[in-house]
């Protein structure tokens, strides 16, 4: 089945969080290793969400988790960071193929993020990066975090589409495994420098995803009738 809608992972798949966050950190905290700070900040992302996914904490938007994690990392490094630095996650630059690829995909498909970012965060990020979404879906809709199946299904339900009519696009194999288990179609687009030049994860697909493409423009070509 040709998908009627494509939903996208954002951090890493659509935008280069590592370089972009490091740039913002460097501007505010010039005496720290900005890339190391960005990497440590991102490392707090999954543990913070895991407490919510596991039921140990009620749903908290990612904006608030980012702010909490900012102060944890700053404290661990012996520096003080202003709350405003947490807005670095709204200022992430897209990979070069993303905007033209999304515009090509948008001509035939509904396109939307299925991100762990809040609607507010995703809206501001879309304004910064010129991401031409039709709407914004994901964690705020589901009040939970990926890879919980309810997040993917809530995005499909919001579009009034069955999961099999929706394709999840991600650079992360674990995201696609969860989406497939929830009944969605899957597309893998690798981002081999998401974690820097020495990245060792998600360099290749680890399953027979429905589509495997080197970038969003090729994804659009493969999905064209």
TrEMBL record:
<dbReference type="InterPro" id="IPR036412">
    <property type="entry name" value="HAD-like_sf"/>
</dbReference>
<dbReference type="InterPro" id="IPR006439">
    <property type="entry name" value="HAD-SF_hydro_IA"/>
</dbReference>
<protein>
    <recommendedName>
        <fullName>(S)-2-haloacid dehalogenase</fullName>
        <ecNumber>3.8.1.2</ecNumber>
    </recommendedName>
</protein>
<dbReference type="Pfam" id="PF00702">
    <property type="entry name" value="Hydrolase"/>
</dbReference>
<dbReference type="InterPro" id="IPR023214">
    <property type="entry name" value="HAD_sf"/>
</dbReference>
<dbReference type="GO" id="GO:0018784">
    <property type="term" value="F:(S)-2-haloacid dehalogenase activity"/>
</dbReference>
<comment type="similarity">
    <text>Belongs to the HAD-like hydrolase superfamily. S-2-haloalkanoic acid dehalogenase family.</text>
</comment>
<dbReference type="InterPro" id="IPR023198">
    <property type="entry name" value="PGP-like_dom2"/>
</dbReference>
<comment type="function">
    <text>Catalyzes the hydrolytic dehalogenation of small (S)-2-haloalkanoic acids to yield the corresponding (R)-2-hydroxyalkanoic acids.</text>
</comment>
<dbReference type="InterPro" id="IPR006328">
    <property type="entry name" value="2-HAD"/>
</dbReference>
<dbReference type="InterPro" id="IPR051540">
    <property type="entry name" value="S-2-haloacid_dehalogenase"/>
</dbReference>
<keyword id="KW-0378">Hydrolase</keyword>
């Amino acid at each position: 089945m040709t998908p009627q809608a494509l939903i996208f992972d954002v951090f890493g798949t659509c935008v280069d969080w590592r370089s972009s966050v490091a740039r913002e950190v460097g501007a505010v905290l010039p005496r720290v290793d900005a890339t190391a700070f960005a990497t440590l900040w991102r490392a707090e992302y999954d543990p913070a969400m895991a407490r919510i996914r596991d039921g140990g904490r009620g749903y908290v938007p990612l904006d608030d988790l980012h702010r909490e994690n900012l102060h944890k990392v700053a404290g661990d490094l012996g520096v003080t960071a202003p709350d405003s630095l947490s807005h670095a996650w709204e200022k992430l630059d897209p990979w070069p193929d993303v905007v033209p690829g999304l515009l090509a995909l948008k001509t035939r498909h509904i396109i939307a993020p299925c991100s762990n970012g809040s609607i507010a965060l995703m809206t501001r990020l879309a304004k910064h990066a010129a991401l031409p979404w039709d709407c914004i879906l994901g964690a705020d809709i589901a009040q939970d975090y990926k890879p919980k199946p309810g997040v993917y299904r809530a995005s499909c339900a919001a579009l009034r589409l069955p999961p099999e009519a929706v394709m999840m696009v991600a650079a992360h194999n674990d995201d696609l495994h969860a989406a497939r288990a929830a009944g969605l179609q899957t597309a893998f687009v690798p981002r081999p420098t998401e974690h820097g030049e020495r990245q060792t994860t998600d360099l290749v697909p680890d399953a027979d995803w429905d589509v495997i493409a080197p970038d969003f423009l090729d994804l659009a070509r493969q999905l064209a009738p």
